[in-house]
Design goal:
Helix 3 runs parallel beside helix 4. The longest helix is centred in the C-terminal third of the chain and has 20 residues. Strand 2, helix 3 and strand 3 form a beta-alpha-beta unit. It contains 14 helices and eleven strands. With about 300 residues, the chain is α/β, with parallel strands linked by helices. The protein is about 45% helix and about 15% strand. It folds into two domains: about 220 residues, TIM Barrel; about 60 residues, no CATH class. It has an eight-stranded parallel beta sheet with strand order 1-9-8-6-5-4-3-2. It has a three-stranded antiparallel beta sheet with strand order 7-11-10. It binds flavin mononucleotide.
Length: about 300
């Protein structure tokens, strides 16, 4: 399946495995790349030694292109970008901050730059600043989210942008991929679906929690304070929302989240951990290999496109 994205990254299928802090490391990224998509190592919250080790490890696990994500809120973001420039990975995705100051430096190092954007204004800015592609991420997504849905972003951003646009948020199977391609996207980025994969190193209890959750299984916390995170509904999200409603100070709310994005995937803390996950959960019914997940995405997308052609 060829699109502007597969050509840009030299990959077989237009599917990126979205970076997931504390979840997507070399093993998962390499498995996705080996299956024909492109995996991404999530460096959010990690130190430089870990990032270097994971890039080295991924290179032993795959000879296919893979990416690295930098969370622009991290204090050591400049050092991480420097390291990535030296390592000359295939591409970088940049989220949670202003990517514009970093685009030129990364491009000069021969690295493709793909910022994650939540609206049309920033999409136009990153395109004008030389980004190679961009990811529009709707609020159906797991993790930190903006205010617009994936459909409204595809509707409004894609016609304004010439570089490849990748849609993210709520893609867990092939009909979604087909829909995104029909909307004019060059590919999709999926996070939650790959969280519940065999190669993902997250704790089995956390992966199972994603499998058993249904369409009403997530909750947004932090909406009022503009620090919105979508995660599985559990004791921690209930408590957070209770405190938010009671106008608890931001420090108290932050305390409730501290370390929890790590404890869920590391320790299987499904009650008080933060299991970041998107809304399209019902169709995730088992933990599969990345190969199975990607093949299924492509098979169902192709069938859906064929069905559409038969419409009169
Ligand atoms: C557990 C988790 C952690 C995430 N961490 C990051 C991150 O560190 N950086 C980033 O740019 N996006 C992050 N995201 C967003 C994903 O890269 C991706 O865009 C999102 O998961 C897509 O929506 P979906 O979950 O419905 O597939 C995270 C998502 C999840 C589920």
């Amino acid at each position: 399946m060829k699109t502007k994205l597969t050509e840009l990254l030299n990959i077989k299928y237009p599917i990126l495995q979205g970076a997931m802090a504390w979840v997507s490391e070399a093993n998962l990224a390499a498995a996705v790349s080996n299956a024909g998509g492109a995996g991404i190592i999530g460096t959010g919250g990690r130190d430089l030694t870990w990032v270097k080790e994971q890039i080295d490890l991924a290179r032993t696990l795959t000879d296919k292109p893979f990416g690295v994500n930098v969370v622009l809120q991290d204090d050591d973001k400049d050092e991480k970008i420097e390291l990535i420039c030296n390592e000359k990975v295939s591409f970088v995705t940049l989220g949670a901050g202003n990517p514009v100051p970093y685009i030129e430096k990364l491009k000069n190092a021969g690295i493709k730059v793909i910022p994650v954007v939540p609206n049309t204004k920033l999409a136009k800015r990153v395109e004008a600043s030389g980004a190679d592609a961009l990811i529009i991420e709707g609020m159906e997504a797991g993790g930190h989210i903006g205010k617009l849905t994936t459909l409204s972003l595809m509707t409004q951003v894609i016609p304004e942008i010439k570089i490849p646009v990748i849609a993210a948020g709520g893609f867990t199977e092939g009909r979604g991929l087909a829909a995104a391609l029909i909307m004019g996207a060059s590919g999709i980025q999926a996070g939650t679906r790959f969280y519940a994969s065999k190669e993902c190193v997250a704790h089995i209890d956390t992966k199972n929690a994603i499998v058993v959750a249904g369409d009403m299984g997530t909750e947004i916390t932090g909406y009022i304070s503009n620090h919105s995170i979508r995660s599985l509904k559990n004791k921690a999200t209930d408590k957070y929302i209770e405190l938010e409603k009671a106008n608890a100070p931001y420090e108290e709310l932050s305390k409730l989240r501290a370390g929890k994005a790590r404890s869920a995937p590391f320790d299987g803390d499904v009650e008080w951990g933060l299991i970041q996950a998107g809304q399209s959960l019902s169709v995730i019914t088992s933990i599969n290999s990345c190969d199975e997940i990607i093949n299924d995405f492509i098979k169902v997308a192709e069938e859906s496109i064929e069905k559409l052609k038969k419409l009169k």
